[in-house]
């Protein structure tokens, strides 16, 4: 069985996005180049940013057709992160609300990628 181990976001400015994600993830990149930045996350997952302006970048897609979810332990943690991110000036696309699975909200990174904070499905 293949197991995904990399999330790669296409970004306009990797340095701007890296500054955003370094604050958000509270960790430094393990690799940083002008057109590519990578973070090593728990469980062997790598989170990377790749410039759409790189000479070898090719993609026939457009827009943001996915979201990254940060599942946290409970509704109180969702609310704490919501307050923290708002104070830090992170744009909020979907305000804090209660969905069928619990409290959640959606923020945006500098390129408009959707970042959902929620609790695991029960």
From TrEMBL:
Residues 3-120 form the VOC domain. Transmembrane segments: none annotated. This is VOC family protein. It comes from Ensifer oleiphilus.
């Amino acid at each position: 069985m293949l197991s995904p181990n990399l999330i790669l976001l296409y970004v306009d400015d990797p340095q701007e996005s890296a500054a955003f994600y370094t604050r958000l993830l509270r960790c430094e990149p393990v690799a940083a180049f002008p057109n590519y930045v990578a973070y090593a996350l728990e469980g062997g997952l790598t989170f990377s940013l790749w410039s759409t302006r790189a000479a070898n970048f090719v993609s026939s897609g457009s827009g943001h057709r996915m979201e990254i979810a940060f599942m946290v332990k409970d509704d109180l943690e969702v609310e704490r992160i919501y307050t923290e991110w708002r104070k830090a000036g992170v744009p909020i696309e979907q305000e804090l609300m209660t969905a069928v699975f619990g409290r959640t909200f959606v923020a945006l990174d500098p390129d408009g990628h959707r970042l959902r904070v929620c609790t695991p499905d029960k």
